[in-house]
Each structure stands twice: as structure tokens, then as C-alpha cells.
């Protein structure tokens, strides 16, 4: 049942994130919402060769238009590390290297955003100053875990990459709001710096997203 | 056109690799082996590099040599024609166009090579070494994020649907609807 005057949400620019992000940039400039998505895919029928493309789209564009194939661009191919054998593939070293490669790549890709600079774009012959911000990252579960550097296993103590709800409570629908602690850049970074990573189930790799404005 | 080519190029490459350049690869491979045996590996490699370079430089262009060339490549990409069909089109054109010099590439493979070497500013990929693992360097192939954004925004109709400001949406139920709800 909808109540008259209740807040409604549709496109990205009606959301709370947009409202807050717009407050964080100087007056007169505009927000450029950047959407990233990636997934490793097989490029042959045998599944022997894989590529890991990462794409970019813009959240300012209305949803139905953005979903057409021309409104997105291939940003790059992320490297896929090769292991000699299965035991190496399961080794801690290999997994850590893979995570490092992933976040190093993101650092290179997102380099223009790291320094909180604005970009000038000419739209309809009007020069507008934009501040680019990553708004959404679309990924499947294992990849989301790599983005957030959380433990991939569903048997870890805090299996969700969004929140710090313990495993036994993850299916509990009666949780109250104050019992759900979100994972934020601040609390994850704090645990990372204090060497208490395992208490919140995150890996020993620096997360590039912590540096984004 | 640029956009299409960026997507179709990889498959074209694969085609040509599979069909044609296999034999070439084999022969160069053999050459390398003999070079190693003779211990003059580096000299010969340098020489071969020199031989190849002029070709590359001639073909560093920002656009196609002529309109017919561009149209042919667009046609091949659009309908996903294989190399044999493309070459047949070239033959057909050359036979019936009655031109002294053909504007088209000698073959589709040559056309693909040309496209690969084309220097389109916002389609250039950079290669950055990201990590060294097991003595092997891994590269990230990527484009500039800003260029990608500019490319998306250069699509003609997209600015009509481009939102620039935060909007606070509120539910508005007009009276007649409320009345209907009440009735049900």
C-alpha cells in the first residue's frame, strides 16, 4: 500500500546514494555515475581458454536506454593467472597472487578516478564539469568476493560481502535492523590495518576501492 | 562503424588465424629453430624485424584508403562473411568494375590486417604489466576509462536520456485512483 507523499525510487538519480554523492562534489559540477561489470567467460567450446572482460556503462543514462548494447564499452581484459597444476591452483600463494592481480588491474583501470579529479565533457555544445564516481559494480558471487576481498567459502563465519551477519543468522528473516552491521570501507580498512582481518573474514590484499573518493 | 569494428575484430582475427596463418606460423617456427641451432639468433631476428617494419608503418592510418574499401569491410563484418566469400566479392568487383587499379584490398585477410593496424584514437588499447607470477608477466589490456565514457556519450540519441541531477520522487496518488481503491 503506497502512501501519498512517500519517497519513491526508479532511476539511479532518484536514489539516496546519488543524493549524498551530489552533496560531496562542488556546486555547479555534476555527478557522473560509473557502472562496472565483469565476468570471466570461456572463449571456446571446450572451456580451455578464458578471457576476463570488464565493461563500463554510465548510470546517468536511463535504464532502458542503458540496457541496449551500444551504451556500454569494453574497458579491458583482466589478466588470468595460469597455474601449472591443480595443487598450485589451490595454494594460498596462487590465490593471493590472483587477488593482487585483480586489484592491481582495478587500480590501473580506475586511475583517473583515484585522484578525485573532475572531467570536462561537452554535451549539446555545453561544457559541463563532471565528477566521476563508481556507483555500481555488477558481479556474480565469487567475483563479488574478489572485489570485496571477503572469504569465498559459504562456510566462513561472515559469508556475505555486504554485511557482517554471522553464518548462522544469514537465513534469519527476523533480524532487526540494528543487528545487521554492514561492511563499510571504514570498518574493513580498520580491521585490515589492525591485523584483525580474519575476525571479519577478509583477505590479506589491499582493496583498491578504499582509495576511491 | 568504429564501434562495430571494435567488436568484430577479434573474431575476424581468429578466422584468419585458423584458416590462413597456420602455415605461416609453422614455417616461422621452423626458421626460429634453425636460427637457434646456428647461434646467430639475435642477428637474424633483428634483420627480420627490419624487413617487416616498413609494411607496418605504411599501414598506420587513421581511416580506410577509400570508401569502397570501408564499405567492403563493413559488409563483411555486418553479415559475418567468411574469408572465402569476402574474397569472392573482391574478385567479382574487380572483374566487373572495369577499373585499372582496384580500390579494394587484395584479400579479406589483408583487409583484416589493415584494420588491426588502424590507429583509431579511442579504440587504442594499452598494455600494463600488473603482476609477475612464476617468472611470467601478466598484462592488463585496457582502454582509458575517460575515453570509454566519451565514446558512450558520443552516441547521437543518448543525451536525450541523460540525467544530470538528483530528483526526489514522491508517490502521488490522484483522487480518482484513491476513490477506486476505496470502492474495492
Which labels suit this protein?
heterodimer; A: 213 residues; alpha+beta; 7 helices; 7 strands; B: mainly alpha; two-stranded antiparallel ribbon; 8 helices; 3 strands; 59% helix; disordered N terminus
What pair of chains forms the biggest interface?
A: A-B, 60 and 42 residues
What is the rounded Rg of chain B? 26 Å
Provide the β-strand percentage band of chain A. 15-25%
| Alpha plus pi helix count of chain A | 7
Biggest sheet overview of chain A: 6 strands, mixed
Overall mean pLDDT of chain B stands at 68
Please state roughly what percent of the residues of chain B sit in beta strands, choosing from under 5%, 5-15%, 15-25%, 25-35%, 35-45% or over 45%: 5-15%
Order of helices and strands of chain B: HHHHHHEEHEH
- Give me the strand/helix succession of chain A: EHEEEHEHHHEEHH
Please give a structural write-up:
The complex is a heterodimer of chains A (213) and B (184). Chain A is of the alpha+beta class and 213 residues long. Chain A has 2 domains: 9-138, no CATH class; 140-213, no CATH class. Chain A is built from 7 helices and 7 strands, in the order βαβββαβαααββαα. In chain A, strands 2, 3, 4, 5, 6 and 7 form a 6-stranded mixed sheet that branches. In chain A, β3 (41-42) and β4 form a beta hairpin. The radius of gyration of chain A is 20 Å and the shape is globular. Chain A starts with 6 loop residues before the first strand and ends in a 20-residue tail after the last helix. The model of chain A has no long low-confidence stretch (mean pLDDT 87). With 184 residues, chain B is mainly α. Chain B has a domain at 2-119. Chain B has 8 helices and 3 strands. Chain B has helices at 2-19, 21-38, 41-58, 67-78, 83-97, 108-117, 145-153, 175-183, and strands at residues 126-133, 136-142, 169-170. Chain B has a two-stranded antiparallel sheet. The longest helix of chain B has 18 residues, at 2-19. Chain B starts with a helix and ends with a helix. Chains A and B meet through β1, α1, β2, β4 and β5 of A and α1, β1, β2, α7 and β3 of B.
Amino acid at each position: 500500500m503506497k502512501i501519498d507523499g512517500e519517497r519513491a525510487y526508479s532511476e539511479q538519480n532518484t536514489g539516496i546514494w546519488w543524493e549524498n554523492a551530489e552533496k560531496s562534489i562542488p556546486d555547479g559540477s555534476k555527478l557522473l555515475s560509473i557502472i562496472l561489470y565483469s565476468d570471466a567467460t570461456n572463449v571456446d567450446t571446450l572451456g580451455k581458454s578464458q578471457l576476463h572482460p570488464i565493461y563500463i556503462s554510465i548510470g546517468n543514462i536511463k535504464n532502458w536506454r542503458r540496457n541496449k548494447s551500444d551504451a556500454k564499452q569494453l574497458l579491458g581484459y583482466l589478466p588470468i593467472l595460469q597455474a601449472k597444476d591443480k595443487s598450485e591452483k589451490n595454494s594460498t600463494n596462487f590465490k593471493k597472487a590472483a587477488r593482487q592481480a585483480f586489484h592491481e588491474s582495478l587500480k590501473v583501470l580506475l586511475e583517473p578516478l583515484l585522484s578525485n579529479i573532475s572531467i570536462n565533457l561537452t554535451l549539446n555544445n555545453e561544457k559541463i564539469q563532471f565528477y566521476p564516481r563508481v556507483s555500481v559494480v555488477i558481479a556474480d558471487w565469487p567475483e563479488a568476493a574478489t572485489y570485496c576481498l571477503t572469504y569465498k567459502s559459504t562456510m566462513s563465519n561472515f559469508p556475505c560481502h555486504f554485511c557482517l551477519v554471522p553464518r548462522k543468522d544469514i537465513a534469519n528473516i527476523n533480524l532487526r535492523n540494528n543487528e545487521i552491521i554492514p561492511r563499510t570501507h571504514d570498518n574493513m580498512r580498520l580491521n585490515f590495518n589492525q591485523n584483525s582481518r580474519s575476525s571479519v573474514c577478509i583477505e590479506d590484499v589491499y582493496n583498491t576501492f578504499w582509495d576511491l573518493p | 562503424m568504429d564501434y562495430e569494428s571494435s567488436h568484430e575484430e577479434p573474431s575476424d582475427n581468429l578466422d584468419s588465424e585458423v584458416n590462413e596463418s597456420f602455415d605461416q606460423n609453422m614455417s616461422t617456427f621452423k626458421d626460429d629453430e634453425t636460427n637457434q641451432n646456428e647461434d646467430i639468433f639475435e642477428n637474424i631476428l633483428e634483420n627480420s624485424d627490419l624487413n617487416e617494419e616498413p609494411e607496418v608503418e605504411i599501414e598506420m592510418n587513421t581511416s580506410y584508403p577509400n570508401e569502397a574499401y570501408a564499405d567492403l569491410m563493413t559488409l563483411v563484418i555486418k553479415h559475418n562473411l567468411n574469408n572465402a566469400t569476402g574474397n569472392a566479392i573482391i574478385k567479382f568487383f574487380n572483374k566487373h568494375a572495369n577499373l585499372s587499379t582496384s580500390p579494394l584490398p587484395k584479400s579479406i585477410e589483408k583487409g583484416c590486417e589493415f584494420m588491426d593496424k588502424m590507429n583509431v584514437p579511442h579504440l587504442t588499447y594499452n598494455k600494463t604489466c600488473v603482476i609477475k607470477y612464476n617468472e611470467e608477466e601478466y598484462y592488463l589490456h585496457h582502454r582509458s576509462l575517460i575515453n570509454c565514457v566519451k565514446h558512450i556519450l558520443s552516441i547521437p540519441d543518448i543525451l536525450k536520456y541523460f540525467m544530470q541531477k538528483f530528483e526526489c520522487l514522491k508517490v502521488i496518488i490522484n483522487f480518482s485512483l484513491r476513490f477506486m481503491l476505496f470502492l474495492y
